[in-house]
Design goal:
Layout (H helix, E strand, L loop, with lengths): L6 E5 L8 E10 L4 E6 L2 E6 L3 E6 L21 H19 L2 H14 L12 E3 L10 E3 L1 E5 L14 E5 H7 L4 H4 L2 H11 L2 H5 L5 H6 L1 H7 L4 H9 L12 H29 L7
Antiparallel strand pairs: 1-2, 1-5, 2-3, 3-4, 6-7, 8-9
């Protein structure tokens, strides 16, 4: 049941500036640093680290032990799952900054799983001939999977990312690992998951990027042919123009706007059918 005790929260948005004051209730954790809160007529995904303060709306009591007022749900409501999925994708893309780097690390993940589905062993199909994506190694038919599903609190973070074919990923959906895999399969999957954190660890080095962009990309293991395309071919989908960090961040912001537009579109569809609340 939702916790209808009301709180006054001061929350610092991603754009910076002074904290926003929110009147909210039903605080639920969905990951180590993420929670869902109800306010403004809808459910919203927040970053726990950006909460400046929390107080009881009726008594004014400042709550210092935040964890005692945030519950782990046994399951995440279906209306929230797509919201978290979109946010996970944005957080993954944001971490790598450039699409060429994101694709490189995605392929490292696929390589860890031998470029095949961990459930049925169906291999992915390597394509390098997509229009405007010259020299990009792109694996079709393989998808990242929340090993522990979103509905049970799992996030798209190293140690919880499986690789499945499209068919198996659709069948797994929000099933728990224990109900989808056999015991022997679970042991094999876990061995892959244990290797993810050091392999996917990454922080964009702005200084190295500014000094020599080509050397920085090849140093990450990206092929010279692709690096040349990315830095010189304006028609390439992964083209990175001569830019400042602000311009690269603008590219990320544009991607986020597309995510927000998609969420708004889905919300409007739910509103038309009476399924869930609309929020922006």
């Amino acid at each position: 049941m939702p916790d209808h005790r009301q709180y006054v929260m001061e929350y610092r948005e991603y754009g910076g500036g002074p904290p926003t004051r929110l009147l909210c209730f039903d605080l639920r954790r969905v990951g180590d640093d993420a929670l869902l809160a109800t306010y403004g007529g809808g459910r919203h995904l927040l970053n726990r680290a950006r909460i400046v303060s929390l107080a009881d709306a009726q008594t004014g009591e400042v709550i210092s032990d935040l964890d005692s007022h945030i519950v782990w749900p046994t399951t995440v409501p279906a209306v929230d799952i797509q919201k978290i999925r979109q946010r996970d994708k944005w957080e993954w893309d944001k971490k790598y900054c450039l699409r060429v780097i994101e694709n490189h690390f995605r392929n490292k993940l696929f390589a860890l799983f031998d470029y095949s589905c961990v459930k049925c062993s169906k291999p992915g199909i390597l394509r390098t001939d997509f229009k405007s994506m010259e020299h990009v190694p792109f694996w079709r038919g393989l998808e990242r999977d929340h090993h522990v599903p979103i509905s049970l609190g799992g996030r798209l973070t190293p140690g919880n990312i499986g690789v499945l074919c499209t068919s198996c990923n659709s069948r797994k959906n929000e099933k728990s690992p224990q109900s989808f895999y056999t015991a022997s399969e679970l042991g094999r999957v876990q061995r892959y998951l244990d290797k993810e954190e050091p392999m996917l660890r990454f922080k964009f080095d702005w200084e190295a990027w500014r000094q020599d962009r080509a050397q920085y990309l090849t140093g990450l293991g990206i092929g010279q042919g692709l690096v040349n395309e990315v830095l010189t071919n304006e028609d390439h989908r992964y083209y990175a123009p001569p830019s400042s960090s602000a311009q690269i961040e603008f590219t990320i912001a544009v991607d986020l706007k597309e995510v927000i537009k998609e969420i708004e579109k889905q919300n409007k569809g739910r509103a038309a059918t009476g399924d869930g609340e609309v929020e922006t």
